[in-house]
Amino acid sequence: MILVILTAIVSVGILLIIVVFSCVMYFRARRLNPYNRTREKLESAIAAARDNYYYVKEQIKQLEAEKLAVQQIIDKKEAMEKFINDFQKDYDDKKLLIDKMNEDIKEITSKLQAADDDLKTKNEELTELQENQHKLDKEIKDQQEKHDSLITEINKKNDQINELDKQIEGLKIQVDNLRLDIQKLKEEKNSLERQTEEARAKSQEVQTQYEQGRQKLEKLTTDLEASKIQWAKEEGREKAEKTRWEDLDRPYFDKGAIPMKDEDEESMLNGFKEALKDSNIIFSDRTINAFHTSLKAEDASPLVVLAGISGTGKSLLPSLYARAFGMNFLSVAVQPRWDSPQDMFGFYNYMQNRYKATELSRMLWQFDIFNNKAEVIKKYPTEDSLPMNIVLLDEMNLARVEYYFSDMLSKLEQRRSISDKFDDDVRKTAEIEIEGGSIGDSESARRLFVDSNTLFVGTMNEDETTQTLSDKVMDRANVLRFGMPESINAKMDNDVFFKKYPDDGRYMQYSSWKKLCKEKKLHPDLMERLDSIVTELNQNMAKINHPFAYRVWRSIETYVSMYPGADKDPASFNAALADQIEMKILPKLNGVDMSESAVSDVLRSMLGTIEKVKDDELTKIFSEVISSRNSNTFFQWKGVSR
Predict the structure, then answer these.
(1) What domain range is 313 assigned to?
(2) Which residue from 153, 423, 576, 627 puts its CA 20 to 30 A from 436's CA?
(3) Is the same domain home to 238 and 371?
């Protein structure tokens, strides 16, 4: 159809060119008419004097008629513009010859009676003109052949257009067949998903049996080694007890520390942003506000994920933030082979009867004032005096996050349900058990409680080598998108930043952080607007069987209430709400079939709701996603790069 429209447009253009050229030639012909009449009178006079001269006049008339025929043929040409210009030049030359001939005719008329020899000369000139006329006839014939060739080519193109129309009809039939195939594939997908769930259940059962077998094997190995080296001896037992937790007990941060004075949140954030700009480290204010708020909202969403292409500063931002806000910073490089919590926290070596700790487990144990109280209170007498820490799981999706971090994520979330952290039995539900040897040992295990003074951030490169995040992780995380930088010529100067925030041992106390994290009460109008928009979105999502529950609502409310300025600035409120819609709600639509009319209606309704948030970028990206349903059948939310 597009080819037909283009052909029609080209044809109209050709006709317009032909009409314009015809008008030009017509007015030229009108200007020549007076001269032609004068010439005809002269030719009549000559014909009366001499019959031979009449023959010359007839030849001239024939030449003019042939010239008009040539002009009519040229009017029908579009692609012969260059030739027409050349022909016009040649025609002007011929016209000059005709004018010269007219002057000769006048001279002949005056001298005809006295000079027959002059008439013979003029006849020779007419003969030469006839030769020129024959040449012109040949050129006209060549142009006629080219015109016929052009007509033939146009006919071929029309045949091709007809053939393409037939092919389009065939493709329409293929599209209908593909839709039927897609429906069949959906049914097969549903069947495969059921089979996958069954296989996953069987795999879990096998994994449990494997774990039980491994534990039995380790116990047998331990018993065998114990019998060989006679661990029953008291001297050996005392040595083992002394060295069992030696690696875990080594402090990770061993430098001195000075508590920072409390500052208001606005001053700290503005100082951080100014230091970044002075150092030519480019992060938008929107990104910094979102990252800062996501860390504060860790009680509702205990994980902050920084996603995007490599080299956009995802790992840099947390480290600079920790430096500016006086927090300990630990970067943990996730490995593709990670498949259990032991990869994060370490393992017990039964051969050496020692626990092999990781940097993360050593750091968490160093500040666990509940289970390692005797050591921690030597430096930090109360929970509120503990330092703030940021743990960065660098490239966290190189391995399946659910395999190594799922248990940890659940424990972090369970902290909210603890009524009294100082009650060992109550706190136990949110603690991580560290394996410590065989059951018969006097100190078989340790427990680790990760308090809210430790914040978790993960970076995620979105390419073909990485894993996607599950719904469980997405529900418990705030995901920030890092897009392509506006400028790649910026040269960072970290020295400027480090000069403003020197490593002088100052640290932010947990009590200071809790003051920053205090939720601000939103104005009733803003609270009503928040409830209205989120409820409207949830009602629409329920229509396509994708509603969300209290956890998501609580996360959204917490984030918005903690966002800088959201309690009094409508623009900040809109930014916070837009962040949560793109982080918490829209990812739940991934995989929805947009080709279904009911789904399409819901998405358009959601677009109207999102427009109320007044975030142009979010509205634009969501509109582009739902408008791409002709090329992308299933909804795929990539987020908004700020």
Answers:
(1) 230-516
(2) 423
(3) yes
Q: Rounded to whole angstroms, how far apart are CA atoms 379 and 96?
A: 112
- Regarding whether 312 and 287 lie in a shared domain, the answer is yes
Q: At which of 491, 516, 541 does a domain end?
A: 516
Contacts 24+ apart (CB under 8 A), 489-497: 490/280, 490/282, 491/280, 492/279, 492/280, 492/281, 493/279, 493/280, 494/279, 494/281, 495/279, 496/275, 496/278, 496/279, 497/275, 497/276, 497/278, 497/279, 497/281, 497/320, 497/323
Are 166 and 58 in a shared domain? yes
Torsion of CA 609, 579, 552, 459, to 10 degrees: 150
What are the residues facing 506 on neighbouring strands?
258
Q: Are residues 507 and 532 in the same domain?
A: no
Domain count, the chain: 3
Asked whether residue 36 falls in the same domain as residue 149, the answer is yes
Question: Contacts by 229-232 with C-beta closer than 8 Å and gap 24+?
Answer: 231/353
Query: What are the 10-residue block averages of pLDDT along the chain, 642 residues in total?
Result: 73 76 71 70 67 64 71 65 65 71 71 64 69 71 72 72 70 68 68 67 64 65 60 53 82 80 92 94 93 95 92 91 96 95 91 91 95 93 95 94 91 90 91 73 76 96 68 89 65 87 91 91 92 96 92 93 92 96 92 90 95 95 87 85 76
Helix or strand (DSSP H, E) at 110: helix 81-111
